[in-house]
């Protein structure tokens, strides 16, 4: 009996090790195949040689001479834009899809993270590709970055498109402050299981099997021996979001702006630090979408009933129709 018990324990342990081995991803996602070839822009900052991954995808129908640049959210990389890239290139657009420094296939650097600096790097990328003007589409954290880009480089921004951006509120006003070190300790506790639970509760109104691939990527890096570096960068960029709001500068946006908002989104950065009562009070995109549109001169708001934080994945056809129809 004892021998059988030891065998069972050993078998379960070996199964867990196998699962970890097969699920493990490097923190630069070498094992994740993007839908299009990935190139790299060299960047030097704070004495470090970094590289910024990006996809440059040509139109698959008659080129219209226009370019769209896609900025991903904090918990993602260029891999979750595939259906948007296909739709835009089929409509004649060239599409540039960077993984921001600290995310996706790009360098995970220990630096001061800044939306201003990120915007400058993306401007450098456009310059390197001899693209002088582009539609800038940002989702979630990418919406904060896209807003900063439009404020810094209006001459390069043909149109600003914000898909459920975070930062429609100043989180400093109601989310308790935590240090980067405290946030780092929180990030270290992340597991594949906690990722899935967070995605289910925060991003989608209804879970679909295809979303499991997003969990496989975000959860896979937690098995890596280098995960503490990923966690540290995640903490540094959390601090960036908290300390560098754009909400107060929406009235200064001077480029044509389109807001695409899933009304059931209730995203709050630092939500877990709030009481249940405050969680219900803030992050209400059915209210925030309209309030933001009123702040940005001449902006257009399109709202999606019954959709959460990522409309381009939850209802792709409805999202693409609204996006391409308003470019």
UniProtKB/TrEMBL annotation:
Gene Ontology annotations of biological process type: acylglycerol catabolic process
Against InterPro entries, the record matches this protein to: AB_hydrolase_1, AB_hydrolase_fold, AB_hydrolase_sf, Epox_hydrolase-like
Report the protein name in the record. Answer: Pimeloyl-ACP methyl ester carboxylesterase
Q: Name one Pfam family in it.
A: Abhydrolase_1
Q: Which UniProt keywords apply?
A: Signal
The reply to whether Isomerase figures as a keyword in the UniProt entry is no
- GO MF annotations in UniProt: monoacylglycerol lipase activity
Cleaved signal peptide residues: 1-19
Q: Name one GO cellular component term.
A: membrane
* Domain of life (superkingdom): Bacteria
What SUPFAM superfamilies does the entry give? alpha/beta-Hydrolases
Per the database record, which ranges form the AB hydrolase-1 domain? 67-316
